[in-house]
Amino acid sequence: MSPRAPLMALEIGAELRSAPRPMTRERMRWYVDVQPTVAADDGRIHTQPPTIHDDDDYARKQGLPAIIADGMISTNWILGLFFDAFGPSLAEKGRLKTKYIAPIYEDQVVIAVARLTARTAQADGGFGYLFDVWCEDDTGKKLTVGDALIHAPA
């Protein structure tokens, strides 16, 4: 089924929600090491010096109680929510903007959410779908907020 069909079926105010998942130390570490590992491109894992994302002592020296997740993790979980719902073709045109408003700590449960706020006709005959997006913890506290626009072609 094309991504447009499920989008067309959504009512304004409809929400997409991911399954709750814990922020693990392994997930946090992967984001720290991915850039130097990819840049080296030699088949080995390359690590960075300590950061607030992977070293508890360093994080405490920076005024945090413990390591915190890189904000891109929550942004990617929001994007993953759209991929799961509508398929990868949604990445052909659109946007996702996020802002990190609260730290995410190890073992904190995170849920990605998208709420459809508007549907507009586009010049090419397709439709634009505007979503408010956020990640929240299991108490409903928002951690990451933003918006997304998904374009469904005619």
Q: In DSSP terms, counting alpha (H) and pi (I) runs of 4 or more, how many helices?
A: 4
Assigned CATH class of the domain at 4-23 and 69-152 = Alpha Beta
Judging from the principal axes of the Cα atoms, what is the shape? globular
Look at the structure and give the mean pLDDT: 91
Cα-based radius of gyration, to the nearest Å: 18 Å
Number of strands: 6
The N- to C-terminal Cα distance equals 14 Å
CATH level 4 superfamily of the domain at 4-23 and 69-152: Hotdog Thioesterase
- The CATH architecture classification of the domain at 4-23 and 69-152 is Roll
State the major sheet. 6 strands, antiparallel
CATH topology of the domain at 4-23 and 69-152: Thiol Ester Dehydrase, Chain A
* SSE pattern, N- to C-terminal: HEEHHHEEEE
Runs with pLDDT <50, length 5+?
none
Secondary-structure class: alpha+beta
Helix content: 25-40%
Q: What proportion strand?
A: 25-35%
What this model shows, in words?
29% of the residues lie in helices and 31% in strands. The mean pLDDT is 91. The protein has four helices and six strands; from the N terminus they run αββαααββββ. It has a domain at 4-23 and 69-152: Hotdog Thioesterase (Thiol Ester Dehydrase, Chain A, Roll). Strands 1, 2, 3, 4, 5 and 6 form a six-stranded antiparallel sheet that branches. The two termini are 14 Å apart. By secondary structure, it is α+β, with helices and mostly antiparallel strands. The chain is globular, with a radius of gyration of 18 Å. Strand 5 and strand 6 form a beta hairpin.
